[in-house]
Design a protein that fits this description.
- The chain is an alpha/beta fold.
- Helix content is 31%, strand content 19%.
- It has helices at residues 19-22, 27-37, 51-61, 80-88, 127-134; strands at residues 2-7, 42-47, 67-71, 93-97, 119-122.
- Strand 3, helix 4 and strand 4 (93-97) form a beta-alpha-beta unit.
- 31% of the residues are buried.
- The model has no long low-confidence stretch (mean pLDDT 93).
Length: 137
C-alpha cells in the first residue's frame, strides 16, 4: 500500500506556529513516528505553501497511489481548484485538520474539499493523520 500525506500552507511551521492550537511537535518528527507505526505501508510526505503545487502533486499521484491524506490548511476554505482536482482523480482522499475547525473562526467552517473526500477527520491533533491512514485499511 502506498499513501501520500500532503500538507498545505504554513504546516511547515508546526512546532513553532501557534503551539496552543497546533502543538509543539514538528511534522517531520511526527512523520517518522507514522512511518514506524505503519511500517508495512509506503508512506510519503509532501508540503507546499503554493496552491498550484498542491494541485500538481494531487494530479501526479491521483491515479497510482492507494490513498492521499490531505491537510490543505487555509486552502480548504478557499480553493475551488483543489476541490475540483480531488473530484477529477481516482485515488481516495481523506481530509484532515489538526484543530477543530468548527470551534474556530466561521470562515473555517466551509470546506471545498469535504464534498469530494472519502472522509474528514477534524480536531484530534496530529493523531488526525494516524486516523486517516487507518481508514485505508
Amino acid at each position: 500500500m502506498k499513501i501520500l500525506i500532503i500538507n498545505g500552507p504554513n504546516l511547515n511551521l508546526l512546532g513553532k506556529r501557534e503551539p496552543e492550537i497546533y502543538g509543539n511537535q514538528n511534522f517531520e518528527s511526527y512523520f517518522r513516528t507514522l512511518q514506524s507505526k505503519f511500517s508495512g505501508v509506503v508512506l510519503e510526505y509532501y508540503q507546499s505553501n503554493i496552491e498550484g503545487e498542491l494541485i500538481d502533486k494531487l494530479q501526479e499521484v491521483g491515479f497510482s497511489y492507494d490513498g492521499i491524506v490531505l491537510n490543505a490548511g487555509a486552502y480548504t476554505h478557499t480553493s475551488v481548484g483543489i476541490g475540483d482536482c480531488i473530484k477529477a482523480i481516482q485515488t481516495p482522499v481523506v481530509e484532515v485538520h489538526i484543530s477543530n475547525t468548527f470551534s474556530r473562526e466561521s470562515f473555517r467552517h466551509q470546506s471545498y474539499i469535504s464534498p469530494q473526500a472519502k472522509g474528514v477527520i477534524i480536531g484530534f491533533g496530529l493523531q488526525s493523520y494516524d486516523l486517516a491512514i487507518q481508514s485505508f485499511f
